[in-house]
Amino acid sequence: MKRINNLYEKIYSYDNLYLADEIARKGKADQYGVITHLKNQDANIFKLHNMLVDKTYKTSAYATFKVFEPKERVVYRLPYFPDRITHHAVMNVLEPIFMATFTNDTYSCIKGKGIHATVRAVKSALKDVESTKYCLKLDIKKFYPSVGHDILKSLLRKKIKDSNLLWLLDEMIDSADGLPIGNYLSQYFANFYLSYFDHWIKEQKAVKYYFRYADDLVILSSDKKHLHALLSEIKRYLSTNLKLEVKGNYQIFPVDARSIDFVGYRFYHTHTLLRKSIKQRFARMMANRRNKASTASYMGWAKHCDSKNLIKKLLHENL
Q: Please, what's the b/e burial string for 88-115 (b: 16 or more CB within 10 A of its CB; e: otherwise)?
């Protein structure tokens, strides 16, 4: 595999830094950090350029806060300048390199993919009823906090030769334990960390129907025993190669008996429904605080599944 060199200069170029600044502040013009930065934009970009050239850049201190939906977790936040600009500057250059590494079976945080592309792919696979009778569904225990820095760095060195860029990536990786949820780069590092596992699943294990959204995995097969054997191999691969552990709530089940609860939907061979918790939030919103933005959002969810009766019922009840 050919490793890529001569990337670092592209990252700290003035054109790239200004572009990163423009992208990073989209939809955030009223944030204090953005407003403060724009008062001295040119001086700040000049300063950041020199920090990267001289390799004196250091990740700022994180602020943290908790969120409770869809589950409780700690979210990390960095200052707009210099950190969020720097993260976008890096991804402006690295994104196509990461994208070339990913298989077609991962959908989280990738342009042109996302939840609704996942839905289309799963629905398409389920048309092959004979080959999708059984489902293996699993996720990885505390995935983001469990990502090993040494392993991630080693994987990056399989793709990247540029020692200056590797210095910057190492500095960012070592700025917090695991991968800090909320960092722009973390979502790409997370996908990259599992990308060689994806290739192993598809190419060495020859799995036809495989879907990964972040650390949630779905595998479909005609053979229940095969899925049990594959689960054992997956556990061994993740533990040995990535120091990750499969969460204990994994399931192997017949699709028609249970449905596949994945990315907010419940998939059957014959139809697709909204997950119960999303349907309940949709109903509460319509009953209590109906507004155009929220309605449009839930309608966006609903239009990708068989929900005509649900929508009709909610609209009728809340006239």
A: bbbbbbbeeebeebbbebbbbebeebeb
